[in-house]
Amino acid sequence: MEQVTGAARAGDLPPCGLMRHEGFGSFDPILFLFLQYEKVEKIGEGTYGVVYKARDRATNETIALKKIRLEQEDEGVPSTAIREISLLKEMQHGNIVKLHDVVHSEKRIWLVFEYLDLDLKKFMDSCPEFAKSPALIKSYLYQILRGVAYCHSHRVLHRDLKPQNLLIDRRTNALKLADFGLARAFGIPVRTFTHEVVTLWYRAPEILLGARQYSTPVDVWSVGCIFAEMVNQKPLFPGDSEIDELFKIFRVLGTPNEQTWPGVSSLPDYKSAFPRWQAEDLATVVPNLEPVGLDLLSKMLRFEPNKRITARQALEHEYFKDMEMVQ
């Protein structure tokens, strides 16, 4: 654990955000971050950098500290990124991981989040019987959609939804979305902090085909992939390259053409030479999902983005009719 040296004590200090904004410009705000928080252990290395479990020295509260890796470290923290991230502090919803603070110096940026120690991937890996609990799958899907709908209503996209950034509170079974809005601020790197390839398994076909403009439907596609994975206990489209990912999608849903997806042939990475697969029956692909669930899944996995169901519409789908509507 890191210890503070010197005369200052955490309890004597105002919050780091105040340090940064009220005349302490000659000091490194990162120093004050670690006067307020004590690192406990490294808990992960994600798309954007390293995540630490930490303790607030004044309140003893456990929080998560995320150190953002900057693609161009020598150029410092982009002001656009600071603006984007600061806006995320306003996002307050029961299904969104709370961003407490943004602390940055010229070269570095740290994000202070609420702490949750379980994610959906870890949960599925450690609990194979989860697939036999349709009520819990439904509850998690509903909570994912609530978080996504809230963010979309605030014009914030995720662009990189996957089980690893869906965090679960073990005590309450509440599910919360992490990393919302970071893609716009920092871009999505091809490789993670530890040089792992960023997964393509949940990426929408319009992005894979090189669309320059895309919107909220990309997140709904990702949620559909996660829905199928919760039921099947294995990824729906586990591609290991962009072309392999596309072909895994095409083998299940059929190769799109101008009839099934008007405008697809004008996307930058569409090739008329793509193999022509016929669509499979989704009921054979996700055999343990009831018909009303298959109907919702099929609406999430529409090729044409503007025909894809929205998160808000999905919450109203018949699949959720027996859910207690806790708003």
TrEMBL record:
Can you provide one Gene Ontology molecular function annotated for this UniProt record?
Answer: cyclin binding
Query: What's the name of the protein?
Result: Protein kinase domain-containing protein
User: What are the recorded Gene Ontology BP terms?
Assistant: G1/S transition of mitotic cell cycle; regulation of G2/M transition of mitotic cell cycle; regulation of gene expression; regulation of meiotic cell cycle; signal transduction
Q: Which GO terms describe its cellular component?
A: cyclin-dependent protein kinase holoenzyme complex; cytoplasm; nucleus
Q: Which Pfam families match?
A: Pkinase
Q: Which family is annotated?
A: Belongs to the protein kinase superfamily. CMGC Ser/Thr protein kinase family. CDC2/CDKX subfamily.
Reaction catalysis annotation: L-threonyl-[protein] + ATP = O-phospho-L-threonyl-[protein] + ADP + H(+); L-seryl-[protein] + ATP = O-phospho-L-seryl-[protein] + ADP + H(+); [DNA-directed RNA polymerase] + ATP = phospho-[DNA-directed RNA polymerase] + ADP + H(+)
**InterPro entries recorded:** CDK, Kinase-like_dom_sf, Prot_kinase_dom, Protein_kinase_ATP_BS, Ser/Thr_kinase_AS
Enumerate the UniProt keywords alphabetically.
ATP-binding, Kinase, Nucleotide-binding, Phosphoprotein, Serine/threonine-protein kinase, Transferase
Protein kinase domain boundaries? 37-320
Positions of ATP binding? 66
**Which species is this record about?**
Triticum aestivum
